[in-house]
Amino acid sequence: MNTAPTSLRELALLFLRLGTTAFGGPAAHIALLEEEVVRRRGWLTQQRFLDLLSATNLIPGPNSTELAIYIGYERRGWAGLLVAGTCFILPAMLIVMAFAWAYVRFGTLPARPWPACSTV
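Given the sequence above, the corresponding structure tokens read:
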């Protein structure tokens, strides 16, 4: 396990990337989190990751987000919690806001003025 301190920048970049590119819901997020923090970076052991995953399954809410937040906490304390959580949630929030804006702006077609029909 890698016990060297993790920079807040490294946490931010990882969780921004995962929050932006990880589509498929919590199952996909969890698989990518495991790949990044257990296998690639060695921030957590496999057993610790599974323990955290089990704990997040017991509490209400999106377990992948809770897992990301706790990984940030494990690596850098409260600052890491805030950075990881914000960076993981922010991309999806902005994408949904952009779709909502586009729907409100372009969701209906402008009424086309039809020529009056004459019955004469």
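The helical segments are 8-21, 26-40, 46-58, 63-106. Try to locate this feature in the token string yourself.
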